[in-house]
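[agent] plan:
  1. take the single chain provided in the ticket
  2. run structure prediction with default settings
  3. attach structure tokens to the ticket
  4. add a short note for the reviewer (M.T.)
[agent] executing step 1
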Amino acid sequence: MTDTLITVQDDLSPAENMSTTTAVEETVADVPNGFIELGLAPELVRAVADLGYTQPTAVQLRAIPLALPKAGGSKDGQSNGYTDLMVSSQTGSGKTAAFLLPVLHTLIQQMAEQEAAERAEFDQACADAAAKGEPAPKRSKRKDPTNPRNFKAPSPGALILCPTRELAQQVAQDAIELVKHTRGLRVANVVGGMPYQLQIAKLQNANLVVATPGRLLDLQRSMQIKLDKVQFLVVDEADRMLDLGFSDDLADINEMTIQRRQTMMFSATFAPRIQQLAMRVMHDGGSSVQKIQIDNPQEKHNNIKQVLFWADNAQHKRQMLDHWLRDASIDQAIVFSSTQIECDGLAADLQQDGFSAVALHGALSQGMRNRRLMALRNGQVQILVATDVAARGIDVPTITHVFNFGLPMKAEDYTHRIGRTGRAGRDGIAVTFAEMRDRRKIGDIESYTRQPFKAEVIPGMEPKMRMPEARKPMGRGGDRFGGERNYANAGGGFRGGRPAGGRDFGGHRDRDGGGFDNR
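[agent] step 2 finished; step 3 output follows
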């Protein structure tokens, strides 16, 4: 469209050209800012504009109005004027802003009301003193929160829970960018692997806390933070948070924040059993919860090309991966492995072969994980080899390819993995390598996404073993895929939540990928 406009302008006289350009600019300017129309605070609208956005995404357009408080109370069963939400939308669709913006808007409003009340109280005290002929009272001085003598356990008004440290840090950074024009609203990040004293200092006067459950509970039990004033509880990536590894911690936090006004859960996927668990932490057992689903499985990741390559063995997979990684069109890529041992070994092999690659998994120190992620974001590293610790919370626009060298533990994790590319509507490529023993897992992924893989071969690297026979997909409701064929039986494997044998894939299990890295 831009090229067409330029061609037309080139054929016009300078005066006509300027007139056309002005008309286009006026047309763009005439489009109202969608975030203003949602009724968000001017400080937030300005921050969003600084990030380059003026129109909300589909999930933001649906969720933000429901998440904002209802004037004069709610008419949908929520007596406190707030609505509980359960939102499902694909990765990269803007879910983080969909819950941050309404929460921050409400906190800003409450701060303004509190400041107005304090100012009115002070003015009244001054008036009373003047009427009595007494000197006007002095404003109380702000105490230094870093001084241990002034320590007061913070009581945040909003709490956001994330299953991994990387995701919590990403959400906290997004929140900090959104409040840069807001005076006095503090955001704190609480994750494991970081010094306690540093986090305790940063928690002082925090209005919003983004945390992983383990470290949060450690600080609460040592009286370094109080949760009795939390009004808004947001669970990000709720499917993983409500999984077996986090259900106990979430139950404890649910009891500690039982006075809250609103609960919101966001995720790319909500399995039926996860929905049942989620209802337990909603008001009135979830009787008035509003469910929002932006896309169905068939519509997910339409901007990501997904291909499958069958391999005879691990060495064959390694040869095909090497072939793909030498593609000049790759800007940056993530290679997912199943275990920490495989992750370290593959990263070392790629480094020896001349690739700029590093490993990322749950056994690394948090400082090392942060440095390697920063190197990826700064373009100093081209290839990140990772376990499922990187399947959530990594938003790097320059990631053009995702490779599934080792298959995910659960079918729904495939969706999160490939969502690391094709972010915010960009195009991406997701390549999966599978051996014949993986055919049931491949079938489970196809059954879950209701999208059959397109199996391809690399000339000269064709598998010697016979490929699985094609069969029709087993999607519910008689789904059809336009004559496409399924390459594996959809039974077994991931069905029911986890493969038989628990979380271990034969190497060291990754605490992040398995849902246990919450400290």
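[agent] step 4 note for reviewer: Residues 298-478 form a domain with the Rossmann fold fold (CATH 3.40.50.300).
[agent] ticket updated
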